[in-house]
């Protein structure tokens, strides 16, 4: 049974007199204990999807226009804000992209974790402090007794990210949404954070929704992957089949841009020509068609539907199933 069900989610933003959908008809599920990776370039709708689930889309200029977000059967979009506040940080928690701007600079680390605990649990200040200390130990922060009374600016970037994870996990959430949790961290710290997330999932059973632009990160920790482009899902599959047999040209392009170990240095990375389209001037057909070397007249005229190509593997491409390696943009031109 699914823990989270998102159905036909549409989140709109208004700019001037115009409206565009940052998330347009997105549907997916998340099972207990599963790690779901959501990938794509900046501007593809990944973060807006996560903010929609938390009902934190700024209004104005944004709003959730339609769809359902069901947590264990309850549609979160039907709940009053008071009930939604009780869910945030408790049943569903989120790690935001930049811990230095997400943490309060004038409160100690301990004060911020304690505040999150006492908001959702009927415990004394001493019990909340003990739980906060326990969480810092869980995320493997060195000298947690000392760090508890320090301010965010006294911690390194990696430790601040661990504090954010500790705060998010303090009330044993069923779902943890991690929005670019390794951004701006060096490679060694990135690996430590990913190991920590994997270890915490195995230890606590928390389901994780991992938002990232890095397919290498997804390969490390995810069970299943959703690829988004211009507000829509273009491919969804278990992590193994997605990497072994991608079925959308955009996914192929993303995979082609990943450096590979063992290359002789002469192999050039494949670039995806162009940029994500202006949301106010989307193509009539497939939104990837202006950048796709496989696009034909049908691709440019008709919006492809997300359909099952193989068991558990869906793609929104008229050419699927693909049985070829995507040519480079230079070869296509």
From TrEMBL:
PROSITE patterns: ABC_TRANSPORTER_1, ABC_TRANSPORTER_2. It is found in: Cell inner membrane. GO terms for molecular function: ATP binding; ATP hydrolysis activity. Its main location: membrane. It is a peripheral membrane protein. GO terms for biological process: peptide transport; transmembrane transport. The keyword Metal-binding does not apply. Keywords: ATP-binding, Cell membrane, Membrane, Nucleotide-binding, Transport. The keyword Glycosyltransferase does not apply. GO terms for cellular component: plasma membrane. Residues 4-255 form the ABC transporter domain. NCBIfam families: oligo_HPY (TIGR01727). Belongs to the ABC transporter superfamily. This is ABC transporter ATP-binding protein. It comes from Reyranella soli.
């Amino acid at each position: 049974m699914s823990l989270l069900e998102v159905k036909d989610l549409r989140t709109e933003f208004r700019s001037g007199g115009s409206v565009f959908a940052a998330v347009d008809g997105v549907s997916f599920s998340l099972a207990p204990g599963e790690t779901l990776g959501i990938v794509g370039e900046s501007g593809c709708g990944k973060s807006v999807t996560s903010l929609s689930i938390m009902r934190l889309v700024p209004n104005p200029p944004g709003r959730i226009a339609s769809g359902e977000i069901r947590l264990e059967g309850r549609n979160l979009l039907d709940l009053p804000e008071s009930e939604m506040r009780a869910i945030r940080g408790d049943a569903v928690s989120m790690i935001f992209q930049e811990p230095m701007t997400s943490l309060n600079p004038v409160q100690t680390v301990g004060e911020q974790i304690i505040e999150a605990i006492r908001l959702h649990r009927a415990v004394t200040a001493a019990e909340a402090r003990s739980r906060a200390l326990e969480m810092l130990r869980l995320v493997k922060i060195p000298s947690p007794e000392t760090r508890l009374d320090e301010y965010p600016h006294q911690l390194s970037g990696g430790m601040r990210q661990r504090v954010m994870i500790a705060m998010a996990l303090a009330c044993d959430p069923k779902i943890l949404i991690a929005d670019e949790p390794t951004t701006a961290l060096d490679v060694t710290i990135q690996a430590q954070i990913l190991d920590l997330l994997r270890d915490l999932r195995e230890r606590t059973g928390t389901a994780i929704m991992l938002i990232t632009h890095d397919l290498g990160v997804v390969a490390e920790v995810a069970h299943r992957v959703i690829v988004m482009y211009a507000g829509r899902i273009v491919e969804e599959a278990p992590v193994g089949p997605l990497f072994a047999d991608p079925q959308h040209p955009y996914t192929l392009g993303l995979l082609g841009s990943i450096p590979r170990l063992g290359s002789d240095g002469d192999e050039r990375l494949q670039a995806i020509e162009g940029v994500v389209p202006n949301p106010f001037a989307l193509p009539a057909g497939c939104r990837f068609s202006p950048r796709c070397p496989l696009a034909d007249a049908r691709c440019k005229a008709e919006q492809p539907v997300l359909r099952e190509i193989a068991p558990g593997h869906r793609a929104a491409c008229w050419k699927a199933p693909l049985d070829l390696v995507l040519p480079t943009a230079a070869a296509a031109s």
